[in-house]
Design brief:
Elements (H helix, E strand, L loop, with lengths): L6 E8 L3 H12 L5 E3 L13 E2 L9 E2 H15 L2 E3 L3 E5 L5 E5 L3 E10 L3 E3 L5 H5 L5 E2 L2 H4 L7 E5 L3 H13 L2 E5 L9 H8 L4 E4 L2 E7 L6 E6 L5 E4 L3 E4 L3 E3 L30 E3 L11 H21 L3
Parallel strand pairs: 1-2, 1-8, 2-5, 8-19, 10-17, 11-12, 11-17, 12-13
Antiparallel strand pairs: 3-4, 6-7, 7-8, 9-18, 14-15, 15-16
The structure holds NADPH dihydro-nicotinamide-adenine-dinucleotide phosphate.
NADPH dihydro-nicotinamide-adenine-dinucleotide phosphate binds next to helix 5.
Length: about 325
């Protein structure tokens, strides 16, 4: 694999969420001709959300997928080289840095911006894995449509779960929302909306014992861990919305990360522990995780990369 002919670039951006595209826009405008690989989900997590009401500049709100098309078009118009493909391996031992795409294509880059985002977490119970894609989903916006008029469940109590429960409540007859504590983590406004939606039924202190069904989901067995009571409820769809993991596996051993795998950047910069390798967006942010903060950190990464490359005379 190492002997293959490498394609060279000054700046490689990995990832196509708000962080990656913003980095591409800034770097392209600085004439760095960035090459950007979009990963398996071009546009990132916003492509599986609905209304975005808090991205500044859109007073009426905007749909997540539409917002990401704007980002992509803007990066393209500035001259960024956007490509399909997933970074599968890196070698940051010497310059230029090596990144393999789809396990075969080799890119050599003078600087790299990592904006690989984060992916949905799962409960990791056997029935969830077995029925994944057959009624079990981590994306209400992608799959809710299949359960129109039916009963569904959603696990989680953060803003994502609240947003997805509300989305499902418009399509489905009943949404059973499973909350593992006696309170929700979601913002007050989202909690109020959920609680005031008549066809969302909240189960406090409740965990999933098992998702029921042979080939497709037809029910769930849940347990209240305070009373010890279990019950079976017929459902057709089971949605998991319990947070995310940073997409940083391929950087293990090269870049400093915390115990959850979030890349560590030097405070106030996008710099990682390897010079010329920068990180932006959710892969390095477990606190804010907003589209606008991801975009802001993508801008920082591009400016840091630009300074780094110009100091090298590139
Ligand atoms: P969070 O980490 O905020 O919430 C995860 C939720 O899932 C928590 O309620 C957690 O419970 C629960 N959970 C975790 N593991 C399990 C498990 N094994 N079984 C049952 N429940 C579990 O993730 P989100 O994806 O909701 O949000 C991430 C970030 O994005 C947040 O900062 C959020 O505010 C933001 N966001 C903002 C939106 C907006 O502004 N429009 C929309 C969506 C997200 P517990 O509380 O007990 O830990």
């Amino acid at each position: 694999m190492d002997k293959q002919l490498a394609e060279k670039t000054h700046l490689l951006i990995i990832g196509s969420g708000p962080a990656g595209y913003t980095a591409a826009i800034y770097a392209a405008r600085a004439n760095l001709k960035p090459m950007l690989y979009q990963g398996i989900q071009p546009g990132g997590q916003l492509t599986i959300t609905t209304e975005v009401e808090n991205y500044p500049g859109f007073p009426e709100g905007i749909q997540g997928p539409e917002l990401m098309i704007h980002f992509e078009k803007q990066a393209q118009r500035m001259g960024a080289d956007l490509r399909y493909g997933l970074a599968t391996k890196v070698d940051f031992s010497q310059k230029p840095y090596k990144v393999w795409i789809d396990e075969e294509k080799l890119i050599e880059a003078d600087a790299v911006i990592i904006a690989t985002g984060a992916s949905a977490k799962w409960l990791n119970i056997e029935s969830e894995q077995r029925l994944n894609g057959y009624g079990v989903s981590a994306c209400a916006v992608c799959d809710g449509f299949f359960f129109r008029g039916k009963e569904v469940a959603i696990v989680g109590a953060g803003d994502t779960a609240a947003e997805e429960a509300l989305y499902l409540s418009k399509l489905c007859s009943t949404v059973h929302m499973l909350v593992r504590r006696d309170e929700m983590r979601a913002s007050k406004v989202m909690q109020d909306r959920v609680k005031n939606t008549p066809n969302i039924k909240i189960y406090w202190n409740t965990e999933t014992d098992e998702i029921l069904g042979e080939k497709t989901v037809d029910g769930m067995r849940i347990k209240n861990h305070v009373s010890g009571e279990t019950q079976e409820i017929p459902i057709k769809g089971f949605f998991v919305a319990i947070g995310h993991n940073p997409n940083s596996d391929i950087f293990k051993g090269w870049l400093d990360m915390d115990e959850a795998g979030y890349l560590i950047t030097q405070a106030g910069t996008a710099k990682t522990n390897i010079e010329g390798v920068f990180a932006a967006g959710d892969v390095q942010d477990k606190i804010y995780r907003q589209a606008v903060t991801a975009a802001g950190s993508g801008c920082m990464a591009a400016l840091d990369a630009e300074r780094y490359l110009s100091a090298l005379g590139l």
